[in-house]
User: What shape does this take?
Amino acid sequence: MSQISEHNAVKIFDTTLRDGEQSPGASMTLEEKLKIAHLLEDMGVDIIEAGFPIASNGDFEAVNEVAKVITHAVVCGLARAGAKDIERAGAALKPAARPRIHTFISTSPVHMKHKLQMEPGEVMDAVISSVTLARKYTDDVEWSAEDATRTDHDFLCQTVEAAIKAGATTINIPDTVGYTVPQEYGALIAMLKNRVPNIDKAVISTHCHNDLGLAVANSIAGIAAGARQIECTINGLGERAGNAAMEEIVMTLRTRRDALPYDTGLDATKIIQASKLVSTVTGFPVQYNKAIVGKNAFAHESGIHQDGMLKNNETYEIMTPESIGLSESSLVMGKHSGRHAFREKIAELGYELGDNAIEDAFRRFKDLADKKKEVFDEDIEALVDDEVFRGGDRMKVTRLNVVAGTEGPQQADLTLEIDGEAHESSATGDGPVDAVFNAIKNICGGAARLKLYQVHAVTQGTDAQAGVSVHLEEDGRSVVGRGADTDTMVASARAYVNALNKLHLKRQKSAPGAR
Assistant: This one.
């Protein structure tokens, strides 16, 4: 790998915790955000956008807590152009070793007229006042021209120049609605480089949405034209069709160094770990044919392709699985494996667990090994993730018996342990899953609404573990619960109860007098 110089270094601005979480159903708890933030810093991400502090108390807390624990990466909070937003962001970022306030306002005619109901002169005043105020909290201020790709070029140049003059050190040019195409976006960045007199005093950033499937291509075009920061998310998570996918950008720059002589400095071997963590946290499975991190990204079924691969991997692979941290799943663990081997395997898979968590995970591994003929790395990852994200739950499924089949009624008999006390319930439903959830609701009550229920097989085979994600909403609160088991009904019950545990915590935090 060539040495990274100031000229060819590209900063990675990860907004998984902010823009990614805005994807419907992708709500994350504080603990989950902290796990992701720590991994992003370990990867070498330059800037972590931790949230939108004024949006909610939860967002403020998330930015504040991430700011406390992240020491090397810049921690960023988003703010609109209003004083209250910026002051709130400044307060949230106060503990940060390297704070950044990211403030924005729309600049396109359609946004100014219909969204802001402001004249261009008023928008210009807001640009200057917002950046000036943000500079009172930090020297690192980023300004974004929302809907920049549909903005008049003369006005865009004027606002960019004014933002830099007011103290912005990064200028973001978002393709907010995923409208532009690569040659057009590259030309826009080049135009700003040529026409804005003080552009050399700021880093130009890209922030591209994927509505036309061009987010990564547009981001790369922006870098080729002179941008030196890319805003992106793990797995391309984000509103509507998502954002530019970090893993695709990093591996494109690394694989095509001949055509794109730029580098991010990221540790790409942690890409798979980050992808799996974000997928687990959000409950959004990665599509099988997703570039870089999809299950089939390094799979070869065609006979011609397999023949070529056997002779030389480079015939059909332009990068190695190992380069993104993907090791071939191997059958090295079984029911005769001991605690030491299990601990080593957990470390090899990138997990750091305490003694109690290791013991619980090992117990579940032994149970799994008794049920399955073959135990793969993915199986161990699923049960460890399930254990980690259920840690501390006050409600647990201790017994479940389900009657299913073509002749109804389908029925579930369930025992839940709540704060150490057993509660039993029996219920019928329109199918076994509905019966299970009804039995849980008989015990727990509440007005939670099921918004999404997803099941996926962790590995191949009829004895594969089922990974279940459940998305619940209640009084504006949104949570994702997860569960894994070789029995889909047990996994479903665990996922639903996991979600209820999270709702309970959110109710406690929002109760009068709660911190």
In short: The chain has a mean pLDDT of 89. Residues 488-510 form the longest helix (23 residues).
